[in-house]
């Protein structure tokens, strides 16, 4: 089984549009949407959800007001400034934990002299196993303002691999998040190949450099595709040279084509339409030789 | 007055809006680039770095001569940053959030904290704009502490624009917390609308006033406008889908420098954001 992870560094370069087309061209594969923060692949692949599961991860400190004597020890201990202090109607001081600022470390819970702080598990999202026209798909939805996107990504990938093993599928295709932080690291570690979709802009070039450094850091082979290359042909050329210099491959170019947005509006992968860019993506797929 | 420029979906034009807004204001302003995974504002402003600070997180260091391998620290750590193997403790600094709990629970006082670098914060002078930017070290997973460090380097009492990272999870929350108003930049496409909805849910949870900036009007359709109308969300500005803007962007040029007539649109966006705060700013 091979695992291809599509990432970009910079957001909005066309990762998801490319990933959907590659899934269609693969015929049948297992698709994993690891951009759990802002997952969009389902808008193109129209998954029919077969199973869903809540992800509980980590804990959250909650002060029981009736047990709190207002000593303020928790305020001194919390490194995340998550304890809020307010005055109630009778003029008394009230301590509470801001659930958004709380990182669930448990220090206040352990050291509250009155044992007045509970530590319930929290829900950080849900993940789903679905069926699409390209095969099974594992995807997720992070709860509003939740933490632990890295953990959710790891679960989505693990499930996708398990399904691929079970069904003897040759390819797991991962649509990754932008950036280089926690959910990206969780999306790429251990992948067989990373495809970086970038754009011929100064920002695209700068972000590509950082994302290739990340792939290098984790020793994952990387190959690059410049999307909308004809917006700035010199920059496209320069980016490909830089990619080669960084030890990455160059897998192809995709032209600027408003047919890509039209496909998105129709809920289709670009290669399922007559868009001119479809030809470029087919060539990219052939070049990847998966 | 702090305004933040954010979006659910990446690549909708946050950076473009943030840097052009800063330039169009004309008066002294500080711009905080909180997209520390991929900071790009400096590519457009081309200033001079005035100061740079390394940002560190406290991580545990175990004194093997004192540690008796009881495992209390490993049991306590919620992030699995400590593991007890064969009577000795292994530290995984990349998993540590720096809460300090292990140093407190160790019965032998065998754990002290050392610093682990996670990135830098730089202050860059660009004329009327002071840019404060964070740059995460490659391979570091934990982003919010560096974003908080960028914000801690800002001068209080100065007009401030925060350029937030894309998405809806902890880095975004770290960036927009404390803002008086947020502009959510989106594009009129299915992806743009879907991710806008997620960002709206997040901002409502945080109780921060917000409006929408629709970028690349002309591609896609009217779905974002229809959504904003139905939800009662103000559309603060619209920018047309213009290949000249895209090309200027690709070269690292500012739209308001190439097309000065756009300056008025950005100044109006700023007024719109001020209006959202109900005069608090």
Would you kindly provide a written description of the structure presented here, covering whatever features stand out?
The complex is a heterodimer of chains A (290) and B (281). Chain A is of the alpha/beta class. Chain A has 2 domains: 2-50 and 124-288, Rossmann fold, CATH 3.40.50.300; 58-122, Alpha-Beta Plaits (2-Layer Sandwich). Chain A has 10 helices and 13 strands. Chain A has helices spanning 15-26, 42-45, 73-77, 107-111, 149-166, 182-188, 202-217, 233-245, 259-265, 277-288, and strands at 2-7, 30-33, 48-59, 62-63, 83-87, 93-97, 117-118, 121-132, 135-142, 171-175, 193-198, 222-227, 249-254. Chain A has a 9-stranded mixed beta sheet with strand order 3-8-9-2-10-1-11-12-13, sandwiched between helices. A two-stranded antiparallel sheet of chain A has the order 4-7. In chain A, helix 5 packs parallel to helix 6 (182-188) and helix 7 (202-217) runs parallel beside helix 8 (233-245). The longest helix of chain A has 18 residues, at 149-166. Chain A is elongated. By secondary structure, chain B is of the alpha/beta class. Chain B has 2 domains: 2-55 and 119-276, Rossmann fold (3-Layer(aba) Sandwich), CATH 3.40.50.300; 57-117, Alpha-Beta Plaits (2-Layer Sandwich), CATH 3.30.70. Chain B is 34% helix and 29% strand. Chain B is built from 11 helices and 11 strands. Chain B has helices spanning 14-25, 41-45, 72-76, 101-105, 144-152, 170-176, 190-206, 223-231, 243-250, 255-258, 263-276, and strands spanning 2-6, 29-33, 48-62, 82-85, 88-91, 111-126, 129-136, 160-163, 181-186, 210-217, 235-240. A 9-stranded mixed beta sheet of chain B has the order 3-6-7-2-8-1-9-10-11, with helices on both faces. Chain B has a two-stranded antiparallel sheet with strand order 4-5. In chain B, helix 7 links the parallel strand 9 (181-186) and strand 10. In chain B, helix 5 (144-152) runs parallel beside helix 6 (170-176). Chain B is elongated and about 70 Å long. The relative contact order of chain B is 0.21. At the A-B interface, helix 4, helix 6, helix 7 and helix 9 of A face helix 4, helix 6, helix 7 and helix 9 of B.
């Amino acid at each position: 089984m091979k695992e291809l992870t599509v990432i970009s560094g910079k957001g909005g370069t066309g990762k998801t549009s490319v990933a959907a087309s590659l899934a269609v061209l693969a015929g049948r594969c297992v698709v994993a949407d690891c951009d759990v923060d802002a997952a969009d692949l389902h808008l193109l692949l129209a998954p029919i959800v077969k199973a869903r599961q809540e992800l509980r991860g980590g804990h959250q400190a909650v002060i029981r007001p009736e047990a709190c004597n207002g000593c303020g020890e928790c305020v001194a201990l919390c490194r995340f400034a998550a304890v809020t202090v307010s005055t109630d109607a009778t003029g008394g001081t009230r301590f509470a934990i801001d659930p958004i600022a709380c990182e669930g470390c448990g220090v206040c819970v352990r050291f509250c002299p009155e044992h007045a702080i509970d530590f319930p598990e929290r829900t950080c999202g849900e993940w789903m196993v679905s069926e699409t026209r390209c095969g099974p798909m594992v995807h997720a939805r992070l709860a509003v303002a939740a933490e632990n996107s890295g953990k959710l990504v790891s679960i989505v990938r693990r499930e996708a691999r398990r399904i691929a093993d079970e069904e003897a599928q040759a390819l797991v295709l991962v649509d990754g998040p932008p950036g280089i932080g926690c959910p990206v690291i969780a999306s790429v570690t251990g992948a067989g190949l990373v495809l970086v979709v970038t754009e011929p802009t100064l920002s695209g070039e700068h972000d590509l450099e950082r994302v290739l450094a990340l792939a290098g850091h984790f020793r994952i082979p990387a190959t690059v595709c410049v999307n909308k290359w004809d917006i700035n042909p010199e920059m496209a050329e320069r980016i490909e040279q830089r990619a080669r210099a960084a030890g990455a491959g160059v897998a192809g170019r995709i032209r600027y084509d408003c047919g890509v947005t039209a496909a998105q509006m129709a809920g289709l992968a670009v290669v399922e339409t007559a868009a001119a860019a479809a030809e470029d993506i087919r060539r990219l797929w052939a070049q990847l030789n998966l | 007055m702090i305004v933040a420029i954010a979006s659910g979906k990446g690549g909708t034009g946050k950076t473009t809006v943030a840097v052009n807004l800063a330039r169009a204001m004309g008066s002294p302003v500080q711009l905080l680039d909180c997209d520390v995974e991929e900071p790009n504002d400096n590519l457009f402003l081309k200033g001079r770095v005035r100061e740079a600070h390394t940002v560190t997180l406290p991580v545990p260091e175990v004194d093997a001569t004192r540690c008796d391998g009881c495992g209390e620290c490993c049991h306590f750590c919620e992030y699995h940053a400590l593991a007890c193997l064969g009577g000795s403790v292994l530290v995984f600094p990349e998993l540590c959030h720096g809460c300090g709990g292990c140093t407190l629970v160790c019965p032998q006082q065998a754990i002290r904290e050392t610093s682990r670098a996670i990135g830098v914060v730089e202050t860059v002078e660009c004329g009327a704009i002071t840019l404060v930017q964070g740059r995460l070290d490659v391979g570091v997973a934990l982003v919010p502490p560096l974003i908080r460090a960028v914000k801690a380097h800002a001068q209080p009492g100065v007009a401030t624009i925060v350029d937030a990272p894309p998405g809806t999870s902890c880095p975004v929350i770290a960036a927009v917390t404390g803002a008086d108003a947020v502009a959510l930049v989106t594009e009129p496409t299915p992806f743009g609308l879907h991710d806008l909805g997620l960002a709206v849910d997040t901002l409502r949870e945080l109780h921060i006033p917000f409006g929408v900036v629709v970028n690349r009007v002309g591609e896609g359709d009217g779905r974002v406008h229809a959504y904003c109308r139905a939800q009662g969300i103000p559309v603060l500005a619209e920018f047309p889908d213009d290949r000249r803007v895209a090309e200027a962007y690709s070269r690292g040029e500012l739209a308001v420098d190439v097309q000065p007539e756009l300056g008025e649109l950005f100044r109006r966006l700023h007024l719109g954001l001020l209006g959202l705060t109900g005069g608090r700013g």
